[in-house]
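User:
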Amino acid sequence: MSFIRTISTRRLLVLVAGVLAVAVGGTAIALAATGAGPVPPRKPLAAAVHDALAAPAVDGVTARIKFTNHLIDSADVGEGAGPAITGASGRLWASSDHRLRLELQSDRGDVQAVVEGRRWWVYDASSNTLYRGTLQRHRQKREKRETKGVPSLARIRRQLAQVMEHANLSGAVPGDIAGRPAYRVTIGPKRNGGLLGSLQLAWDAEHGVPLRAAVYPRGSSSPVLELSATDVSFGKVPASAFAVTPPAHAKRVDLAPVRGHERGRRASFSVTAPRKLAGLSRHEVRQTGSGALVTYGQGFGGIAVIERKAEGSADNRKFVTALGTAINFRRGGVDYTVLGSLPAAKVEAAARGL
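Assistant: Predicted structure:
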């Protein structure tokens, strides 16, 4: 969490949007338009998932894309906001050897995002800032390590049943996405969902490659975040597509994951962690040498409080979006960030309770 001490609110928002674009791009090349393209036959969700997992692997994906962001109002971050905030068109390349490049283009400066294995970086030309880091390696359970090949249809049914204990899950809806036969599924939390309504994912019926991802706020039929493709093709991607490097003069922000030995270190200040905050019970207190993360409630309907020792000038701001609210303030030599996928009044009450 040391990067939070030096990153400005505006750059943090750019980073969040940019990394989201990388995450969505890594798992989806989205809806371009629904036309008169081929539509696959109807089938149960478990069968559609099984067939997707069993489909032959593709050598790569190339697409022209459009990223739409209605989550963050560019007026909240001032003039000069880059395409990760305002939305933009661009291109995407993904290879079978775990390389991904996403490019968003605008007259205010481009955003380049590259993932190579576990390493990634995002360059925002509008602020001349390079964010880079390493994806954390997660330990897998023995059952997952020992599982090889495509899971059986019975196993997929069992796993979907477990998901449906906590989430509302639609069937596999056939359709035409970017001129490709595809299946779409909608998933939304049954409880503790906060302002999150649902996520929509879609995949190519023939190749099993994800084709769409969109995020919807509660009670809305329009997504607040969407990555769309106007053209999609499958095939080997040349190495030159990934031969891009950020400018040497860019300002650098390293975003290293918290290591196991760092989680047990105590913050250098007294952490504020009341038992209840805005009516929610304290769930966890995680300390590091640079700060602390305190969570209240569970699921998307909870509240997170990030505390770190104050450095530099104070950045007292409030951002209200369709998916939640973030409040930054300073008190007693400590900077607080209060986040929640909840109405603004609830998050404001939490900030007052610290």
